């Protein structure tokens, strides 16, 4: 059987490795636009206080997967799924332009969500969603450090990623202002008491936290970026951290059922019996996207067993908690995930 996987995050790689152990004779091909190997996405938000992050973030070079008889096509963008032919179209560094599959595993993850009013100003802000993003941010930051200066950042969004990045940049010595539209930080995940203690931890670390500040627009002036809210303030650069958006485009173009994510049944099967989805991109029948490493790994191992005929019961989410990687912060109450 020919198994093709799109995406080399925790979903795609964990599935490939587990399936390899269960079905040694099947052909497994993993297609990814990444170049650097399989890396830890959670560590991205510790990318400023750790000097050697660009190397230490790589959990596994692609060569290690190839040694394990998993064919990896890297630097390769999947541009279409042809369901009638059961093949995918590929563009990029690899020779293959099309690849047939018996079973296709969609593990494309998610992109940073950029609110529509910000989209025309792409050159004025960064997002932090991939290793490529982190390298771009670090390069920009380094140009200040080379002149013995630290950049002055505005972060838009006081959710999990915005708070983590604000904390890490402050720990690395930068000036940080965090704009949040709501009246408390991480309001979707934290109890009010924990939001209050998170606010104090960030303020104590030097972050200027501005609550109830819905950012309306950006403008560039004399090399600085101005953020317009109730007041107008100037920064060296912005980071937009307004949540994530499942990468559903390929599935939509192929006519699969999609909502917030690619809709799957309790067996992680999409509306096409030959195509499965897992990880950030998959929307379960309860409407949830399980966008955390622990449940995604659990999905990947479950799907490998299911497709290898070793599992009949549907996937059920494991009990798990998560933690904001804000320096010096520990929530008292469990998170909503
Ligand atoms: C800054 C940050 C901090 C986080 N911290 C935590 C944390 O502390 N704890 C936690 O549990 N979770 C955390 N998360 C969430 C967690 O990282 C994700 O839920 C998880 O990595 C998703 O894995 P995935 O394999 O589904 O997708 P991804 O990791 O997004 O992998 C998808 C891969 O598919 C590739 N791809 C997409 N489309 C194509 C295409 N058309 N062709 C080829 N390749 C393609 C992408 O390049 C990517 O490599 C964090 C996320 C971020 C961004």
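Sequence proposed for the structure above (337 residues):
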């Amino acid at each position: 059987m020919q198994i093709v996987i799109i995406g080399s995050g925790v979903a795609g790689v964990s599935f490939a490795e587990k399936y390899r152990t269960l079905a040694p004779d099947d052909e497994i091909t993993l297609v990814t636009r990444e170049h650097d190997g399989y890396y830890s996405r959670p560590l991205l938000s510790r990318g400023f206080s750790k000097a050697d992050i660009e190397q230490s973030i790589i959990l596994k070079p692609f060569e290690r997967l190839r040694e394990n008889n998993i064919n990896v096509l890297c630097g390769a963008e999947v541009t279409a799924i042809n369901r009638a032919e059961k093949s995918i179209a590929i563009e990029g560094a690899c020779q293959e332009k099309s690849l047939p599959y018996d079973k296709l595993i969609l593990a494309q993850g998610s992109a940073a969500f950029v609110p529509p009013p910000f989209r025309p100003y792409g050159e004025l802000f960064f997002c932090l969603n991939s290793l490529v993003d982190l390298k771009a941010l670090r390069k920009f930051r380094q140009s200040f450090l080379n002149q013995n200066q630290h950049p002055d950042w505005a972060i838009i969004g006081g959710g999990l990623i915005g708070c983590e990045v604000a904390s890490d940049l402050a720990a690395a010595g930068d000036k940080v202002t965090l704009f949040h539209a709501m009246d408390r930080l991480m309001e979707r995940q934290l109890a009010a008491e924990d939001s209050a203690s998170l606010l104090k931890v960030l303020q104590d670390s030097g972050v200027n936290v501005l609550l109830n500040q819905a950012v309306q627009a950006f403008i560039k002036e004399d090399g600085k970026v101005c953020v317009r809210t109730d007041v107008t303030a100037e920064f060296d650069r912005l980071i937009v951290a307004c949540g994530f958006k499942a990468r559903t485009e390929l599935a939509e173009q192929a006519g699969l059922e999609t909502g917030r994510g690619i809709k799957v049944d309790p067996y992680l099967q999409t509306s096409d019996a030959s195509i499965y989805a897992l990880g950030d991109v998959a929307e379960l029948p309860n409407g949830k996207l399980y966008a955390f490493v622990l449940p995604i790994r659990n999905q990947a191992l479950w799907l490998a067993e299911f497709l290898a005929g070793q599992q009949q019961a549907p996937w059920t989410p494991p009990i798990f908690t998560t933690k904001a990687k804000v320096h010096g912060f520990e929530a008292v109450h469990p998170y909503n995930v």
